[in-house]
Amino acid sequence: xxxxxxxxxxxxxxxxRHFRRVTIVRPHNVYGTDMGGEHxxxxxxxxxxxxxxxxxxxxxxxxxxxxLQTRSFVYVDDFIDGVMIVLDRAEHLGIYHIGxxxxxxxxxVARLVAEHYGRPIKIVPGPPADGGTNRRCPDITKIxxxxxxxELVRTAGTGTSVVVDRCQVCGASDLESVLFLxxxxxxxxxxxxxxxxxxxxxxxxxxxxxxxxxxxxLGLIVDPGILFPPEYPYTSGTTKILRENFxxxxxxxxxxxGLEGTELVVDVGxxxxxxxxxxxxxxxxxxxxxxxLMANLxxxxxxxxxxxxxxxAAAARVVRECGVAQIVTATNVFAHIEGVHxxxxxxxxxMAPDGVFITESHYLMALIETLQYDTIYHEHLRHYSLESxxxxxxxxxxxxxxxxxxxxxxxxxxxxxxxxxARTVQPTVQALITEERGAGPLDGRLQQFRRRVAxxxxxxxxxxxxxxxxxxxxxGVGAPSRASTLINYVxxxxxxxxxxxxxxxxxxxxKYMPGTLIPVVDEARLFEDxxxxxxxxxxxxxxxxxxxxxxxxxxxxxxxxxxxxxxxEG
Length: 570
Hints:
Blueprint: H1 2-18, E1 24-27, E2 30-31, H2 40-50, E3 59-64, E4 70-71, E5 74-75, H3 76-89, E6 95-98, E7 104-105, H4 106-117, E8 121-126, E9 135-136, H5 141-145, H6 149-155, E10 162-163, E11 175-184, E12 203-210, E13 216-218, E14 220-221, H7 224-227, H8 240-257, E15 265-268, H9 274-281, E16 286-290, H10 294-300, E17 305-307, H11 312-322, E18 325-331, H12 340-350, E19 351-362, H13 364-369, E20 382-383, H14 386-394, E21 398-406, E22 412-419, H15 427-438, H16 442-469, E23 474-477, H17 481-490, E24 499-502, E25 520-522, H18 524-529, E26 533-536, H19 542-551, E27 557-560, E28 566-568
Parallel strand pairs: 1-6, 2-5, 3-8, 4-9, 15-16, 15-18, 16-17, 18-19, 23-24, 23-26, 24-25, 26-27
Antiparallel strand pairs: 4-7, 10-14, 11-12, 12-13, 13-20, 19-22, 21-22, 27-28
């Protein structure tokens, strides 16, 4: 079988060297209708149908090996779409693997087939297949590197971009435009330095307020396959503030909920597993759900992680393989996922009767108070107040039992929720709601916010333009996602901002900031070139950054862009 494949590829390559364009496509575990019965999925279907007359449950179901071996399956329609994309973009004599990075246990496949027929089965391990392997997962690095993976993800059914004409939570059509920042590129789509400018998507960034439930939300939901491709670069473990926050969350939840160290903890959007490592260190069994390649990193570190977008299927898999959870966490992700009601239902489906859902999101009040318009980008679909998130959770039988402000990302909110009556509601909940209401009507505050944003844009542009006109140089410091919004909304280019410096080893070094020709370079340039000014793009931690940069040898002045543009002498 393998020799036949090799022979055909050798023939194709030699043909391509002499005649015309040749591309080699290698399929990986394709399944679908009219598939030959020798393959695992149709084989399981056929055998299950033949066993339906078995008189008792569970039905013994023999498989090859232990069932713990994994495969990565791709549906035939998605495979064909992938072939068409590769043929359109492929290099001559290129070899491309088409498949998915999500690995599924063979025993799980058998159980899913059995569930379809409504009969439980008992897995009976059998002799392993001749030449079988414990793991088979395609290397799709080439299609990711060449930008093909985004189209493959879209064709895999992760959704399309949708204009929001009804509230994402309550469904009301009475939506008020709060702020329009123009058309912004995806914050992590960065082109290599030196690559000629070419077409790049940009999407409207409009903030809306629902007059019915007061949810503040983005006016366009962009295909998650565009915003969160498998190679999505964000890594929570590299940020000290987040590591400290996750450690504190574990300590707080243990004390508040009386955890014993044996309860299952599930993290939705678990990234590299940094949060779960804190619970695992305390003895808890853990499981993460993560759609990007960070899932592989987490698994390598010993944090069990399912590589999948989160939804009913992923939740069912968690319960099936790990059991129900005492704690389900979703940090810096609960505002990111479309179809929020399906998400909450899926969270509830994983929770034990007295289980708790802990979520952290950017806090609407902090956004308004400190003018954080740079946190408005397409990954952030909703900006929660405590009242709006309580309204959402209440629609699913949950009540908020504890809430607090936390400093991450310039101001976030941490919320604990449980089934009604399952847990004691802490005084912190009413205290924070009282604080929100005491700040005044939300519509008036948002109108003032819009005016302040426009004034800040003009003031910042003038503050940067004047020294540049006199010959000064300005370097940006840090390239967080929020920097893309600020740079594109204010209208900065490389004539104003010479470059942006990033920590050594960052994937962003050697690329342009999204939507611009502003290069991202190693932070060593800041100390070597000594520009007159450093624009702090991670301005929410400016007080921490400035003394560190000065101590490392930077001799210029600092520009803090928000909430009020200002110059701080070094």
